[in-house]
Amino acid sequence: GDSVTQMEGPVTLSEEACLTINCTYTATGYPSLFWYVQYPGEGLQLLLKATKADDKGSNKGFEATYRKETTSFHLEKGSVQVSDSAVYFCALSTTQGGSEKLVFGKGTKLTVNP
Amino acid sequence: DTGVSQNPRHKITKRGQNVTFRCDPISEHNRLYWYRQTLGQGPEFLTYFQNEAQLEKSRLLSDRFSAERPKGSFSTLEIQRTEQGDSAMYLCASSPSSYPNGYTFGSGTRLTVV
């Protein structure tokens, strides 16, 4: 079945460091890809998305490019801030059964130190 | 509109008791989803409603679980005869019909079965 594998954490960085969180997927058909972020004590928030190959999603300085050839959707940010500390989830959307349910990776916890 | 609302935020119950959670989606969203998230894992799909119709249920949703969405508005998730393995965060999400836009998640209900 469809699955998402993302880089295991936790990841600890200093402020202004570069961030890459790897995400690869296995899916039938052509899924849409998402990154969600979960801040402490809060629900998941959509960070960015890409709906087809070579699309680049971006938001709040984060970027990810849908790479069909490598089945990847790595999350990147050039300069992280303390406020970026959160858990990041890669997900794909599958339309099997018409429900458009999301399949998530296990999450990567990011801590940014001042 | 304040987003997806879930109540209660926390629930502690004794093993064997029944519990019910409520989700109020964004008013114009006709799709509603329930997910379960255990510690250190990504959310896992439980069930999906389009308006009042429950169109898909995961194998994770045992016979002790039941979900309803009367009149296509709010939804309830009931767990009967709770077990310690039911301890998790239960997340509700809603989305409009247009695809793919990702979901809006609520903050979740954290269930602890003692």
Walk me through the structure.
Chain A has 114 residues and is an all-beta fold. Chain A is built from no helices and twelve strands. Chain A has strands at 3-6, 11-14, 19-21, 23-26, 32-38, 44-50, 56-59, 62-65, 75-77, 86-94, 101-104, 108-113. In chain A, strands 2, 5, 6, 10, 11 and 12 form a six-stranded mixed β-sheet that branches. Chain A has a four-stranded antiparallel β-sheet with strand order 3-9-8-7, with no helix packed on it. In chain A, strands 1-4 form a two-stranded antiparallel ribbon. In chain A, β7 and β8 form a beta hairpin. With 114 residues, chain B is mostly beta strands.
* Largest inter-chain contact set: A-B, 27 and 26 residues
Class from secondary-structure proportions of chain A: mainly beta
- How would you sum up the global shape of chain A? globular
Largest sheet of chain B, in brief, is:
7 strands, mixed
Low-confidence stretches of chain A: none
Which residues of chain B form runs of ≥5 with pLDDT under 50?
A: none
The structural class of chain B is mainly beta
- Compute the CA-based radius of gyration of chain B: 13 Å
Strand proportion of chain A? over 45%
The biggest beta sheet of chain A, please? 6 strands, mixed
- Estimate percent helicity of chain B: under 10%
Query: How many helical elements of chain A?
Result: 0
| Count of helical stretches of chain B | 0
Helix content of chain A: under 10%
The topology string of helices and strands of chain B comes to EEEEEEEEEEE
Count the beta strands of chain A: 12
Which sequence of SSEs, written as H and E, runs from N to C of chain A?
EEEEEEEEEEEE
